[in-house]
Amino acid sequence: MVRLEDARRIIAAAEKKAQELGQPMNIAVADEGGNLVAHVRMDGAWLGSVDISIKKAFTARAFDITTQDLAKSAQPGGPFYGIHASNEGKVMIFAGGVPLRKNGKVVGAVGVSGGSGDQDHGVAVAGASAF
C-alpha cells in the first residue's frame, strides 16, 4: 500500500534529484490500483507535463514495468507496438515511470516528466529508491 506519507517521501527524494539536475519536474505517485496519491509540479515545470507524469505512473503500475523498458518493446515491429493507444489513451511510453515494489510485489508507481527521457527516468528512480 502506498500511503500519502510514502508519496511525500518519494516526491521529496525525486525533487532533490531534479534540483541537482537543475530541471524542474512534475512528479506523480500512484497506488496499487494506478490511482493518483499525490502530485507536485515544481516551480517552472512544464504545465503540459502534469498529465504526462500522472500517466507515466499509471503505466508503470498497470504493466509493472518501467516506461523506459516498455517503450523499447512498443516501437514499430516490437511485441507491444500500439500499446500506447490502449487504456483510453492513459498509457505513456516515454521514460520516467517506475514501479514501486514492496516485498517483491508492485504496490504503486512514480511518474516523472519535464526533462529529457534520461532525466525523467533518473528522477523517478531516485524517488522510487526512497520507498
TrEMBL record:
Pfam families, per database record: HbpS-like (PF03928)
Record-linked PANTHER family: PROTEIN GLCG, SLR1406 PROTEIN
Protein name from the UniProt record: Heme-binding protein
Provenance organism: Pseudomyxococcus hansupus
